[in-house]
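Sanity check

After download, print the first record. It should look like this:
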Amino acid sequence: MNTLLEFPVPFLSDGWRDLITLTGLFATIVTVLAFILAIYQIRKIQSAAEASIQGEKNALTEIRKHYDRFAAANAHHLVRNVKVDVQKQQWDLAAIRLSDLADQLAQLVGTDESWRSFIDRLRKWEASCHRLAVGKLKRFSTDKWIEFTGSLQSKIDDWIALFPSDKETKHDPKRKSD
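Expected structure tokens:
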């Protein structure tokens, strides 16, 4: 027999052994409950993180919408100014404003690639106005200009319509609440 494990007198009384067993059982239950609580908290943190990411995406979309509306409205303003410059045959100012307009519309290419063709055509009109300003070109194609600016303004109007103002969306009964 193994004499090392045998004690001549009981090491602990039955009452003490029962108390140690109950304490161990209680500690095990508390550990399991703490583990369940930790899992619950981790899931809550994950859902909070997901909500934060979704909120960030929503904010970015809203900011982009406001910026696109601003850029389109500014482009509209630039179109009016360049039309006045062309009408007054102020070719140097028209060239500068056409360049500004192309740069402004280039900001919208990331959202809608169809702006690219308008930008390319604006750069060509800019070059024509510059050549008129320095005397290298004698004739301005008014009919093509009117057709181009009409299609450009129509495109800008369509773009602005995609982004209703805050005043229009606050009391819109068709708009779903968030």
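If your output differs, re-run the checksum step. Summary of this record's structure: Helices lie at 14-87, 91-106, 115-134, 142-161, 166-170.
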